[in-house]
Amino acid sequence: MLGMHILHGVRLTRLDVCRALMGALAIALYPGLFMAAGWVEPAQAQAGGTPRVQPRIVAALPHDSASFVQGFLFHQGRFYESRGRYGESELRVLDPASAEVLQLVELPDEIFAEGLVLVDDMLFQLTWKENRVYVWDVNTLEPIREYLLFGEGWGAAYDGERIIISDGSHVLKYYSPDNFAPQGELAVFDQGEPVILLNELEWVDGMLLANVWMSSDIAVIDPESGQVALWLDCSWLCARAGWHPDGKDLNGIAYDADAGRLWLTGKRWDVVFEVEVAWE
Ligand SMILES: [Ca+2]
Asked: How do the domains of the chain map onto residue ranges?
């Protein structure tokens, strides 16, 4: 489509696409200016419904545009990334400032890696349809064990007690990190409607953030009720990252609980955005 792109209900005109390209060029040429300016678009007024806010971009970091991000987290000054697709799946440890790959585990060609979550010193890495959960030592990336997962693995997070897994439906499943025994489910709704295609996850100060596949929205889910409390409208970020509907989806949320920093990226994006969110 040359003239118009469809972005989760938002129509991007040729002008919008040009603005996005100009924005990406500006980031590439003047990252310091971009960061200093704190580029932000005003949130759109909403009439009723679940509140929506646009994250404010505070920094743009480099990212490997070949990496099909399926899992993303921050730990002790590094990004940990699960890279998907058959023949490309890996576990990567990255320097956030330079995107340099510090450590790497290549997975077999028949494995499609998915969500990634840290529990104590263990990284749990899901696979899409291969029913495997790899457990790695976060310090060495040595394998510790494997678990069997029934059904598809998409995103993963940890609430301090249980691992939370998405499978593309609106129902999140809980597992024990000790033995991977099922620990229940949580159905996710927004205004009475199920929210399907829940994908990459992140636990952020008692709330669960979830990418929604093929959209530029992130659901902020109340884990007690399963209700979406807030939508993060990331259409502005997606436009600047070169989002288009053939696979460069928004998919990657990492959080530094100590410093309260939040990062967003996507499949084959060349950028990781540090963002701020007006939660109230
Ligand atoms: Ca994550």
From this structure: 5-276
Q: Which fold has domain 5-276?
A: Lipocalin (2.40.128)
Ligand 1 midpoint to CA 124 (Å):
12
CA distance 24 to 19: 9
- Beta strand 261-266 with 250-256: parallel, antiparallel or unpaired? antiparallel
156 alpha carbon – ligand 1 mean position (Å)? 7
Closest among 210, 84, 214 to 92, alpha carbons compared: 84
DSSP 96: T
Distance 70 CA to ligand 1 centre (A): 9
Rounded to two decimals, the pTM is 0.83
CA-based nearest residue to 267, from 64, 25, 10, 113: 64
For 199-224, the pLDDT digits (tens) are 999 999 999 999 999 999 999 999 99
